[in-house]
């Protein structure tokens, strides 16, 4: 097609683009419209327009075998004409937007209003101003200059509000920036294999251009659209785009269309890339979403819950291949077919994390108390004033006095609001966010890439870890160490001369041809290092075995290139074997097979003897071989692989689809034992886990003897203990009843003792994880972490409380289902994650202990002060400063404590351990008593002690007194020293332990101290401070230091004696309603929400600041699938479900897997078991 004929179709502005396309034989538009076709339509269109895929390759100036030349100018040109392979992200929120969001906080709004009224009144001088008759307190004390300064208080309040807002906004902004950094790091790490200039290279996904020849294999997430050129048995799960859960088989003549964002479930092959970035199918959907989302936001501010997810999909849409960071589609691919489970898995993730639940509850309780206190304060002040003025002194209410009275009332109102401000711990959300963000940043250094923030904290509560064996506990460097060839069992690699030539030739072909051609052994990078293994590690082990036998696999492969393979049965978790069929020169067929020895040997009816002849292999020979060869190998911790072959006639051609008949009557060539050594650091890591109260279980596909041997080496089981090692079959037999249904009570009998589950299918892994999580056998609900690397581990990773995917060996599908990616695939990194998780929890507790002490003291001082002296000893601006130290700074200082090994010496806290333990309660009340005693002493007899004027009963607008300044200063000093006490929450004596390991803490304490000096000495009227002498300062610091001494006194009191102390922030069993019930009834709302409905808690929105802070995190969380996002526009019905499950008050854990009920995936075994389709 000449491009001039096309140009008529396009509007003027596109004309240059099509002439551009003239350099290539097809334009972007043509390719884009071609990719929108499916199946046979596409085949017909390709035939009509282009002839075949080779023609398309020629037109795109690429070679199906050699790939692109890969020269820079050529790649640049392709990027200009066909676009780049990335989708521009949604613009981040600007700083001003974040400021605006921070201003939505209710307490701040109340303060602003009060401040503005106060400002207005101070500038309003009514005629009756100096009318002596107005108010008693107004008399003589005030000279003209002071009256002028009345505006300062209002202004100062406004200023401090601005400070708080800026701090909050800056925090959010830097966090957003951090996440974008994390995002781009994950993006750079995602690579894809393409052929360029005849070389197979891995390039970052964003570098892929139209015309590239990409190699696709099992477990890949396709990064761009393309046409299938050649391959074997390629099956794709396209549910993320079409919602159809059946795997689609791709072939050149039936359905060659490969679409971005879909998963390869089986097989391998090559494709020519035809559309990238915004023009790929995924990109088109994202651009639609981008446009749709903006309108929706305008239209629907109220439906913020649905919106959150649309936002999420846009803001992270950058990475269209849905790399590790972004869940483009909640893992529908490998999800194990049973619907019922799917529904539960969704809800299971929506459950608020343990910490969030406890915090929400605590914050509600504190908020109520604060509200009550502040209301009482205002009422008492107003009553006292009116009674005193109008009843006792019998003053008439004169119209010209009205403004003066109003001014008094405003002052009382401001005092009330200040009490409320101090009572409300708006630092909590901040502390949580800082603590999590800090941990996540540091965990990167410990090889943990956290994708969902709350996973970090959940990990601290983990009670069980179900780990894979290969690659996690072991090094994943496979080497053959034993072999059984020609009736001889060799305990080390045999001498090549001892093996019959015919056998050797068969063995070489069987291993070289019947393995992925992408698997290679390359020379070592450094001198003296081990050769590099590329591709499937088991196959690398076998190829290494050939090299040890002084044979080479390259000539065999070049003689029989991949295109010539007649048929390939790829490895999958059901077959547990791989077979390749080739056509021999005499037109007959030969099939090579390899796989788990007990499975392949069952299909063998002959075996090659020492002379290379096939002899009969009967079942009883097989049993003997299992006993004499396979079990001894397995007991040494080796994986046994059997290599076999079968010759098939050319006519009649066998029915290749009838696998059972084909994969039978094999002839066994040899059995090899492959060693995969345990990683040296694993036994120590497992010991740490066990000491920390975490049970490690091994779930593997290997045979039971191998698994047991490795488990003993790792220290998962100790000889002589009472434990279970089961095989998948036996496990299933024990947990199912007569009807074959799984029963929870049967699982409960098994899991507490189960340590090794061998020969397990992905469904078994999922069943085990689900069984442990749903178990009510122990008084605490088990919190389970799971590691996985294969596509088939998806369901178990999703179901677990925390899913770890392997960064190196893991498939994209596994990474997408996970919460944390282990960048070094190492089990000992999981221990680090546990440490950080516990640290987050402890940091929050430290902060709470500090904050609540300040809260209790400040509220009581303001309240009693107001009742007795009609004025709070701590002024509004001072309170706001104290609030700033308490909230923002303290949360920074205490939330960034680095973790120590001691965290691993205690058992996990569990779900119903209260946030504030008895020891902490003792500390809070103890310190509060000390502080209150001293402050009241200073308030009532302070003027006598320091020989200064009393500050009590000062008239409105009187100058700040030294007396009240001393009280304020002492109060702050005590907080500073108490901050050091707060570093320990388990009643330790040495509070300075490791203080210099936390530079942030030291900086903040010293910084606050410096600012305090400035405020007192130069704060003047705005801060109601008057400068103090040196000796007065010394007293303040001395009283502050008393906190440390007092801390030691408190530590001496045994907590066990103080039975009357209540704990707080506990999640009761009642709130642990099983999530299923919650979802069935939309009206079922948790307590906090019900309170919210009554509108009692104004400040609750303050807590909801979490929501803004975690807006970024949502993006990580909500697997805003295409489908999820599209559905959101199309079907209202599904929205009600989404929202029902989203209505947790702090809206933190946005739904993780919004997969629609329509897209039910097939079961892992290939036949969907539909149990409870909604």
Automatic annotation (TrEMBL):
Q: Which GO terms describe its biological process?
A: regulation of cytosolic calcium ion concentration
GO terms of molecular function: ATP binding; ATP hydrolysis activity; calmodulin binding; metal ion binding; P-type calcium transporter activity; PDZ domain binding
Region named Disordered: 1-24, 296-350, 1133-1174
Locations listed in the record: Cell membrane; Membrane
GO CC entries: glutamatergic synapse; postsynaptic density membrane
Which residue windows are transmembrane per the record? 98-121, 151-170, 371-392, 412-438, 924-942, 1000-1020, 1032-1053
Compositionally biased region (Polar residues): 1-13
Tell me which SMART domains the record gives.
Cation_ATPase_N
Show the ranges annotated as biased composition (Low complexity).
1139-1157
Task: Please state the Enzyme Commission number of this protein.
Answer: 7.2.2.10
Name all Cation-transporting P-type ATPase N-terminal domain ranges.
Answer: 47-123
What does it catalyze? Ca(2+)(in) + ATP + H2O = Ca(2+)(out) + ADP + phosphate + H(+)
Q: What does this protein do?
A: Catalyzes the hydrolysis of ATP coupled with the transport of calcium.
Protein name (Swiss-Prot/TrEMBL): Calcium-transporting ATPase
Organism of origin is Balaenoptera musculus
